[in-house]
Amino acid sequence: MRRNIFLSFNAASAVLCAALLGGCGSANKEGAADPTATPTVVGSSSCTNICHAATVDVTGNPIAATWAATTHTTVSGVQCENCHGGGSLHRGIGPIPFPNPPASQCAQLTCHPVIHAGGEPALAEFNETRHANADQAPDRNFSQQIEVPARQVSAGQRAEECSRCHNPNQRFEFDFAGNLLRPSAANMPDPVVSCASCHDGHQPQQMVTIPQRSARVGYPVFRKFFINPNTGQQVNPTDTGAQNLAGFIFQANGAALTAGGVVDLGRVVGRNNELNVERLCGSCHSRGVYKNSLGVTHQDDIYTQWTQSGHGNRFAAAFGEFSANPEAYGFTDTSHRTVYPVDMAISRFVTAGPASPSQNAGANNYACFKCHNGLTSLAYQADVQGTPLAPVVFGDATVTCLTCHNPHEDAPGNTKNTRKPVAMSHYSSAIRNTAVTPNVTIGSLKFSGNVFLDNTPVPEATGNETICIF
Question: By three-state DSSP, how is residue 74 classified?
């Protein structure tokens, strides 16, 4: 995924060299004469007009184009220096405060300072996770043992191949002799997974119109990794079968409910409604081969374990029958067929016809979606189903990584970022009982909270078992 960078001397590189020598930026030549001065803001146009007009980031996306098109920019007005810091000292060759913006840049008071129920700011909660690596001793050389080393590599190459997961936003550049140019060998990056390790830093969100809502709905855009689509392992871009894939949470082609509220099942072809959020996690949580040393990577092969389990089996009845196309998974009974997108803020489903602001289309799967789709389950786990806080789900998902694990925070008393559902049962709210069949109350099931179906209290959870009981 990392490329060695060499400049061939042609007309294009001559222009680039001239820009570097003169300093990038506008005609005003931003940049302080004193390199020790405090960097100031020069404006995004100074970044995108020459130097970064065609630059691609580590995901392979052109920086300027993706930044200009995302809702991060078009809606929130986020500028380059909001994330990277003032660029007045940069001039194409000088320092910039945050070349690889840390999570703290995303959690600024004007951006994402969300304070959750526990009372901690978002950054404080994220820093408690193992992804943030905030409480572990730095390991600047990433000195995990290679199981079957095929050849010796330099310290820089070793850091590069480990950084694919331990610091995936860091670029590594080498000269023709293989000597490390950037970053400095004397200042190797600490292992840390930040926001842009999972989210596409230059295009974190896009918007889409759905018939159930008058305002457009946002969906996250995850970053891409070169992986083997069968094993989930990260590979080199030149490897046979390598694909630049992202875990995606939006499926445009498979959505059968059109903007006019009409169900068009002709848009559902084969298994094109599948969402593959697990690819994002699988790019690191799988066993592969180190880029330079060619030894077997050290981590457990969690992705393969998941794909071979019932949780990851898309052909199991629990998921295949509730998919957008049960026949593609071997099921002739289509009574549970789902029409996407599903707005979990709305509990009412209808079998056909135009949707209204109070309707979804498709089978009456609302109550079933507590378990039969790994992303709709999140609404029930947070106990926000049937409320404006509930998400919109755009396709089929099994019990996937994000169903059970929360990468942004650790639940109290749990380990491995395992989620802890707010309420185990959901049977008391009128909107959840009477909306399907108007004027009928299911009186025998009027209870909710942490209780089993016989109304027996669930024992106070002390660990990860709660997510399984749920």
Answer: helix
Looking up tokens 């990056």 gives 189
Residue among 353, 337, 342 nearest 213 (CA): 342
Q: Tokens 């000195």 — which residue?
A: 143
Peptide bond preceding 204 in cis form (omega within 30 of 0): no
Amino acid at 242: A
Q: Mind listing the pLDDT tens digit for each residue in 235-257? A: 877 788 888 888 889 988 777 78
Residue 470's closest CA among 409, 404, 410?
404
Give the closest residue to 42 by CA, choosing from 51, 34, 31: 31
Amino acid of residue 368: C
Does residue 311 contact residue 398 with C-beta atoms inside 8 Å? yes
Asked, as a colleague might, if the bond just before 102 is cis with ω within 30 of 0, I would say no
pLDDT at 268 over 90: yes
pLDDT in tens, 6-41: 223 233 444 444 444 444 544 444 455 565 678 888
Pair 200, 66: CB distance under 8 Å: yes
281-331 pLDDT, tens digit per residue, is: 998 999 888 888 888 888 889 999 999 999 999 999 999 999 999 999 999
> CB of 367 within 8 A of CB of 322?
no
